[in-house]
Amino acid sequence: MKDLKQGTITSPLGFKTNALWCGLKQKNPDLGLIYSIVEANAAAVFTSNKVKAAHIEIDQANLRNNSAQAVIINSGNANCCTGKKGKQDALKIISGLAKNLDIKEKSVLIASTGVIGKYLPINKIISKIPELVKGLNFNKAEKTAKAIMTTDTYPKQMAVEIKLNGKKVTIAAVAKGAGMICPNMATMLCFVTTDAYIQPKALKQALKEAVDNSFNCISVDGEMSTNDTVAVLANGLAGNTQIKDKSKELKKFSATLKYVCFKLAMMIVEDGEGANKIIQTTIKGAKSKQQAQAAALCVVNSPLVKTMIAGNNPNWGRIPASIGAAGVDFKEEKLEVTLQNKIVYKKSSPVLKDNKVLINLLKKKQVSIDINLNAGKFSHTMWGSDLTAEYVKINTEYN
Amino acid sequence: MKDLKQGTITSPLGFKTNALWCGLKQKNPDLGLIYSIVEANAAAVFTSNKVKAAHIEIDQANLRNNSAQAVIINSGNANCCTGKKGKQDALKIISGLAKNLDIKEKSVLIASTGVIGKYLPINKIISKIPELVKGLNFNKAEKTAKAIMTTDTYPKQMAVEIKLNGKKVTIAAVAKGAGMICPNMATMLCFVTTDAYIQPKALKQALKEAVDNSFNCISVDGEMSTNDTVAVLANGLAGNTQIKDKSKELKKFSATLKYVCFKLAMMIVEDGEGANKIIQTTIKGAKSKQQAQAAALCVVNSPLVKTMIAGNNPNWGRIPASIGAAGVDFKEEKLEVTLQNKIVYKKSSPVLKDNKVLINLLKKKQVSIDINLNAGKFSHTMWGSDLTAEYVKINTEYN
Fold first, then answer.
1. Are the folds of A2-270 and A278-397 the same?
2. Would you identify the CATH topology of the domain A278-397?
3. pLDDT tens profile B18-46
């Protein structure tokens, strides 16, 4: 596997992109388009929030035949809690785009991100579609990455290359997300482009596995979005032998897709609203996978743990307090808490008591918390952001 | 029922108190004592966190005979995650206090609050016990209320008077708690004193009901403490006929106790770390009581809802987003969201769209959110704090 320097979603063969400003944000591009020169196999995973953005039902319908050729994305407005009008608006955009691209409406996917509960300024968007399509080319990926940003401080994109049956195959992705980040999934959008030739069923499987091991393992603020979407377009232009279910090629493709999604997920955590640090929390010795996940989520979302890490505050007692409230099975006397590979708590008693040593341990950009419940054999790792006054400032004002 | 102006825990007959500084905090009193001149019937409710402070097991043992005469409380150190030594330390304090008061050790309750994972400076505490006992009197309640504070900005206490069978009965309470506040229960300590004469079984029942309807309905930050304790001492000096199970006197006593606990719970929310506002969240139309509670808790703990309220930010879409992630049953098209008695969202669509009107609605010290799931007949109300940069500051630094 080779990480491509400055790799983008146009690194795989046959993908063009464009972005422009249509007035959803005050300035900066807010409408992006990703286009494959041929129809691609496609799959997507969406938020499990019961309140869903308008685009999700439409995409689910359009993906019934497991293919797509274009994705249009707007930032600045989530088009969520907008009822029938919201869906009609999304369909109008799809219709306009399909006409301009001369493709079927069913080949278009759509996604929105931004404020909830406002109608899209539909005319502004529709009127810009011809310009958006006309400008499609192979070197606008950076602009598109910026167009899907909301509170992100930098665009998130990457591409890697692998060899499959002697053919070069490229997998790339662009993502956005900095707040409202919690599984399942993070509040985020991610679009994967690849020139791999792959069975639709295998593609679906690989995407689900990648998302479960990346975006579903991160939390910035415990909030689950209404708009989360991860979609992949695989246009087959690499010319590899088709990747099939249960093949060793699928294994390799899956591992690579997982790697790309994980890297982007880490960028999202690192760029978490107001975040300065990444907190890696591993639960070991849980009675079940569910309990390991619940415990990891509880710690990674604890405001007291998050502020403790933010402030290099040696108050590690907040960690057992958080675990104790997670509703998982363990005995207090068997609980072990490790901070940056140093045991701080074991056999119901403090182990590392020197505040100066503790403070120095915490003065790192990535802090690891390992918790052994000693109650079973399941484990789970999650990554989260610290909590700073800047997070509060952003979300008090964001509008 | 009569609210006593400047009522305190020494308002009921026969209760003395004292407080002093023994070096647990940098300054200000940090050790308090509540004492009934006669043995009292007693009951308590404790945290359901799996990691519990040392004092809890001891109190549970001492309460087996449903009576107590003294409560000693320290702030500045939670005596939690301190294993055997922590328990031995607590027992030493009890032993020293019992000797000085000339009462049985079993008649003493103990409680701690503060930093987790540090051993108590036991000698400092023990050496101050004679002075603490010597200074017991009827007018130190204010000082005691201050001695149990941690990040609280003001002491929380009150007393009310009722008539039972022609006799004046007084119920009073003191509480602390400002962060790590979430059911079950809030991170808080509360000590209720009353001169009522009441059956132990009836007292237990009344306390449980009062706590369920007060401290278990509030959340400052979604964190459940290791130390939560609500204890009541009823010394019978009012001379009323004994309040018995299922009597109309118990009904009146229970209602009054609930009122006192509710008032103190509201003081805790109002004084929530960094909080400027109280958010009252009511869920209606839930399929079960559990679902109503889960949904209310999810909204009241949502950082995005809390920052929205803090900033008079008209982004009400965060409320349906939060409900959608709560894991409760409802249909999006039946969801109704009301803010300050104005419907903002109904039939999947925004209703109140004027940002200026929305901002003005939010510019209140208490903000009410009403959510109708229209999925059943159960409801639940919770009270929480908004989230400000000050909360983050306090908990980044608190140590």
1. no
2. Ubiquitin-like (UB roll) (3.10.20)
3. 999 999 988 889 999 999 999 999 999 99
